[in-house]
Amino acid sequence: MKTRLGILISGTGSNLISIAAACEAPDFPAEIALVLSNNPKAKGLNFAKERALPTALIEHHAFDTRQAFEQAVHQELCAAKIELVCLAGFMRILSPFLVAKWPGKIINIHPSLLPAFRGLHPHQQAVEAGVRISGCTVHIVTEGLDDGPILGQVAVPVLANDTIKTLQQRVLEREHQLYPAVISHLCENQQGSLISHDNAKASNHLFSIF
Ligand code: GRF
Q1: Pick from 52, 71, 102: which residue ends a domain?
Q2: Which residue of 4, 104, 108, 120 shows the fewest CB atoms closer than 10 Å?
């Protein structure tokens, strides 16, 4: 049985596209069962519709509170029988309410080598800090921002003439390798009972590309 993925997006959806491409392989252990966006203009929604993937649009503006929005997201995920939630450029910070409903079952990709450069504008933070190596990280979502146990990382050199844009592009290319690889690794190793906070640091869950 393939693990049912719910992919949450707000924008371009290039990570969604890379996950969808990986899911086409017959032996990939997961399938996209829902693409959910909070933004009606998210390009990734068009991609999902063209591919006939199930989609849901839940606009956060339509709700009075964050919890009401997250309750609607939760219901949609449950209705689609989602087993692993993958944030892929989802521009809403999840509150403890939703995180508690999916303990260890929400993962995120962040374009820095966490714990460095959490939050917004990580590439700008990296360039301004003058680091020579940046990268991307897939981690379990916990209550803290970009703070959960790390599942996989790729290191990307910062070149002397890099701008924020060129660094972003080079890191994004590696994100497209990392995210499907971590999803595959997780789904194969967990066989339905996905990773818990306690066992996330076990070495067999960690994944890295150099
Ligand atoms: C990626 O850089 C991801 O790491 C970050 O948001 C961006 C989303 O890009 N969380 P895309 O929508 O997948 O193209």
Answers
A1: 102
A2: 120
Q: What is the number of structural domains in the chain?
A: 2
Question: Does pTM top 0.85 for this prediction?
Answer: yes
Q: Which atom of ligand 1 is nearest to the CA of 9?
A: 12
If you take atom 8 of ligand 1, which residue's CA is the nearest one? 89
Give pLDDT tens digits for 7-65. 999 999 999 999 999 999 999 999 999 999 999 999 999 999 999 999 999 999 999 99
Mutation test of ligand 1: which of 8, 9, 12, 15 has the most ligand atoms closer than 8 Å to its C-beta?
15
Residues near 131 by Cβ (< 8 Å), separated by ≥ 6?
A: 116, 158
Q: How is residue 80 written in tokens?
A: 């689609």
Ligand 1 in contact with 39 (CB < 6 A)? no
* Residue 113 sits in the same domain as residue 145: yes
Q: Is 176 a catalytic residue?
A: no
CATH number (domain holding residue 156): 3.40.50.170
Same domain, 47 and 69: yes
Contact 134, 167 (CB under 8 A): yes
Give 186's DSSP letter. H
Helix (H, G, I), strand (E, B), or coil: what is residue 203? helix
Give the range of the structural domain holding residue 186, as residue numbers without chain letter. 108-210
**Per the residue annotation, which of 110, 123, 176, 205 is the catalytic one?**
110
